[in-house]
Design a protein that fits this description.
Blueprint (H helix, E strand, L loop, with lengths): L35 E3 L7 E3 L5 E3 L3 H7 L6 E3 L2 H5 L3 E4 L8 E4 L2 E8 L3 E4 L3 H8 L7 E3 L2 H4 L3 E2 L11 H7 L3 H4 L6 E5 L8 E4 L3 E7 L8 E2 L14 E6 L3 E6 L7 E6 L1
Parallel strand pairs: 1-4, 3-5, 6-9, 8-10, 11-13, 12-17
Antiparallel strand pairs: 1-2, 2-3, 6-7, 7-8, 13-15, 14-16, 16-17
């Protein structure tokens, strides 16, 4: 197995892998949902989600539950990488391994969307993962345990079938239930629509298609894109319902409404 040089950090920071740098770089416009990407100067590899965010692999163990090698990693310029916001950390592929942390004696199976399910007995563990079940447990650093959520306990082997969970997680988009963002196109005179209605949990990408600087700023100042120069974009998840009027800080006549149902 390849040797890794890992650099750990917590929120919004990266884990570095010893991935070879490829001479050719891929244009930002050529990226597709599900691509594996890295910059030219750093070793960290990310998953490019359908929502337009990049997701961090905290370490090599997490990465190898999803992929067997680095053959499909695309290199993009550091400048382009910097324009893709970080959406969070990837978690173990469901059904691949069990995990635990030092501060918790319980062993957990990983279900969809990073859901941890306590394996309540050795008998259940053997039924699910075989007689060598104890070799299929990884320690997760306390700093990254917050990426997971607790689910229902596994009290019988038919409560959770690792092979089914593994097969059901086609990719990280599916595992995290990521969806393409709603686009708010900004011209030099207006937002493309006077009102946008989205479902809670949807991302919105504000794209400056004009030639001058613009913003999209909530009238109550609860959120905003900051200044977007020509060609720049900013994406935000709206996880709770609500209604906001928003405007451009540079052009007071530019207004629109966002309704989150």
């Amino acid at each position: 197995m390849k040797k890794f040089l890992s650099v750990f950090a917590i929120v919004g920071l990266l884990a570095g892998f010893g991935v070879p740098v490829h001479a050719a770089t891929t244009a930002l416009t050529s990226l597709h949902s599900g691509d594996l990407i890295r910059g030219t100067s750093f070793n960290a590899v990310y998953y490019y989600g359908v929502d337009g965010f990049r997701y961090v692999f905290p370490n090599d163990k997490t990465y190898f539950t999803w992929y067997s090698n680095f053959d499909t990693v695309k290199t993009i310029s550091d400048a382009d990488l910097g324009t893709i916001q970080i959406g969070g950390n990837a978690t173990y592929k469901p059904g691949s391994r069990m995990v635990k942390i030092n501060s918790d004696p319980k062993t957990y199976a990983v279900d969809e969307n990073g859901t941890l399910r306590w394996v309540t007995s050795e008998t259940v563990a053997i039924a699910m993962f075989g007689s060598n079940w104890n070799t299929k447990i990884d320690d997760v650093a306390d700093a990254f345990f917050g990426n997971y959520q607790k689910g229902a306990d596994i009290e019988a082997s038919d409560d959770f079938v690792p092979a089914d969970a593994f097969a059901g997680a086609a990719d990280i988009n599916h595992d995290k239930s990521l969806k393409a963002p709603t686009i708010v196109d900004i011209s030099d005179s207006s937002y493309a629509k006077s009102s946008y209605t989205i479902q809670a949990g949807t991302a919105v990408r504000f794209v400056n298609s004009g030639a001058t600087s613009h913003t999209a700023t909530a009238d109550d100042e609860s959120w905003g894109t900051g200044t977007l120069t020509a060609g720049q974009s900013f994406t935000k998840y709206f996880k709770a319902s609500g209604e906001w009027s928003f405007h451009c800080n540079y052009h007071s006549s530019m207004t629109s409404d966002l309704i989150v149902e």
